[in-house]
Design a protein that fits this description.
The chain is mostly beta strands and 126 residues long. The protein has two helices and twelve strands. The strands form two sheets. Strands 2, 3, 4, 5, 6, 10, 11 and 12 form an eight-stranded antiparallel β-sheet that branches. The protein has a four-stranded antiparallel β-sheet with strand order 1-7-8-9, with no helix packed on it. It is globular and about 40 Å long.
């Protein structure tokens, strides 16, 4: 298993095939997904958060998110994260003892993890 130091995580929601909110829609295994959350980490610490809206990606720094309780309540944002990747698995540790293990598909150095209505893409910075 390899630990990612610097990485981005993009979370997508399942949408109907006729949903055209923006050009960000992605087709994955015959279903359509729209991004709703972008997170950027350096050495496992949150740096930036983006929320996808019709006008595009709205970016916020981690300190802006920390000060904004409404934003923190709107989306679940993780301040510290450890990501380990293998050939067919991603382990996402959310600080403390909370961890998630996902089966993954690797495409062009991106790790795609499908979890029901959600698709999460882990992108290592190279």
């Amino acid at each position: 298993m390899k630990r990612l130091e610097n990485f981005r995580v993009i979370s997508y929601r399942l949408v109907s095939s006729d949903y055209h909110y923006s050009d960000e829609r992605m087709k994955w295994r015959g279903k359509y997904y729209m991004p709703f959350l972008y997170e950027e980490y350096r050495k496992g610490t949150l740096q930036n958060v983006g929320i996808y809206k019709s006008e595009g990606l709205l970016l916020f720094t981690s300190s802006e998110v920390e000060k904004d309780s409404l934003m923190r309540d709107y989306v679940y944002i993780i301040k510290r994260r450890e990501i380990y990747v293998g050939k067919k698995v991603v382990i996402d540790k959310e600080g403390g003892n909370k961890r998630h293990v996902y089966n993954t598909v690797i495409v062009k150095h991106r790790y795609y993890c499908y979890t029901g209505k959600y698709l999460r893409v882990y992108i290592p910075d190279t």
